[in-house]
Specification:
The protein is α/β, with parallel strands linked by helices. Helix content is about 60%, strand content about 10%.
């Protein structure tokens, strides 16, 4: 693929990533976050500053979702475009690349985190289901779990029909270019990132101010200190007591 075309695709899907990232702010609910977070951990690492606390939980909330958003908005559609494939007709399989004698079914995974046993079984079942549906095509079915970064590669086994490729080898497999993984990061444009960050930081500041105001009103003492007993009460207090 020509560098200019690849650069345009990167710009397109990077914009989609940031758009979804901005939307994520609208789903933030302070009370729900406080009920899920470990209050003892935050008390142990906090300087008792409401501002610092809000910054920490906002950062943790967004960071935890960034990997998934980036995979869905950037890696997956980009992998489909550069491979010349199409959207797979099966759930759990993202890209299908068909040649005269092979049907390559690809599930795109953002990072190198390894599946647990139940996730691996579900992924294998989805590949098996697609293979069974395509038997009449009389083509070699090649199931691939592709990790967009990382270095660990695995072969099919008795328990699963798919192989795994990571990082350079995954991108090389679907593009035929051993240096694609380097081109990908080189063509992420600094100027475009800065433009997106301006909008993101503006949205961050708006969310920070909103949740800081709520936090000060509901979870802080009159002297401005964090009311940790109040936080641990809504996080871990007996539901029977909360109903009284």
């Amino acid at each position: 693929m020509e560098s200019s075309k690849l650069k345009n695709l990167i710009q397109k899907y990077l914009a989609e990533f940031y758009e979804r990232r901005l939307v994520k702010f609208d789903s933030i609910n302070l009370n729900k976050i406080l009920k899920r977070k470990n209050p003892y951990l935050y008390r142990s690492i906090s300087n008792n500053s409401p501002e610092g606390f809000i910054d920490s939980i906002l950062a943790a909330f967004l960071t935890s979702s960034d990997e998934g958003i980036f995979g869905d908005a950037f890696f997956e559609p980009l992998a489909r475009e550069v491979s010349g494939g199409v959207v797979s007709p099966s759930e759990g399989v993202d890209v299908a690349v068909e040649t005269d004698d092979r049907y390559l079914a690809v599930s795109v995974k953002s990072g190198p985190n390894i599946y647990n046993a139940s996730q691996a079984k579900r992924q294998n079942d989805e590949f098996v289901e697609l293979r069974n549906r395509l038997k009449k095509m009389n083509k070699r079915f090649d199931a691939l779990l592709g990790h967009c970064y990382g270095q660990r590669n695995t072969k099919p086994s008795r328990k699963r029909i798919y192989r795994e490729l990571f990082g350079q080898e995954f991108w090389a497999e679907i593009t035929g270019d051993n240096d694609f993984y380097k081109k990908l990061i080189t063509l992420i444009d600094d100027k475009q990132v800065r433009v997106h960050l301006i909008d993101f930081e503006r949205k961050w500041e708006m969310a920070r101010n909103l949740f800081l105001k709520q936090f000060l009103n509901e979870y802080c003492k009159n002297n401005g200190e964090i009311d940790w007993e109040r936080i641990v009460e809504i996080n871990s207090g007996s539901r029977r007591d909360n109903k009284k």
